[in-house]
Amino acid sequence: MYHIYMFAYRGKGKASLPFFGNIRVHWVLENCNTGELAPLNTLRDFGKVSLFLAANATLAASIIVTFAYQIFNRCPNQSLSGCGPDNLYLVAQLVVLIVNFFFVIIHMLMATRFIMNCEFMLNVKEVGGRPLRPEAVASVLSRANLYYGIGLRQTYYSIPLFSWLLGPWTLVGMTVLYLGFAYYVESTNAFLHAANHVIGETEGASVFNNDG
Questions:
Q1: What is the largest CA-CA distance in the chain?
Q2: For 59, 78, 87, 202, which has the most beta carbons within 10 A of its beta carbon?
């Protein structure tokens, strides 16, 4: 719910999303059809990171599935009905973790797909005799970043979900800590402070001006 709240303010300049969205658009406008390798290397590194996170999520999900299967095998008659309540509770926790990592894999692979499309589009001037506008390339990159951002947040979710294995109160405590940390990292004040040092704005709010 917290991340839905942050995304709801995307168009109102209340979070870091508009700032970095504008940065990506200007990056595409400045590097489209230049023929240079540096922008392609940047996109390639972006794709490597998303693939790395997808691979880690796959490994984590595989380990958890193996552990859950071992618990299932120890149950009488190898059925959930024969498992005790403690084992059923543990299996339910593991299933939630597996589902979370499954969505991490899907979103990171989708991000990689759009990153690769953006790589091919970056130095293409025409398609079917019609010019390929840089804004179209920026739109593809924004879509890649959307999937990457969702997958990254789902990776963050695994921290409180793993703490759930230690008990419900550990889950509550880690969730509160996570929300506080995430709000600080993604809130307007934190990013305005950083942006003021980078861009040199005297009025922080102007950094998030979508007109520029």
A1: 70
A2: 87
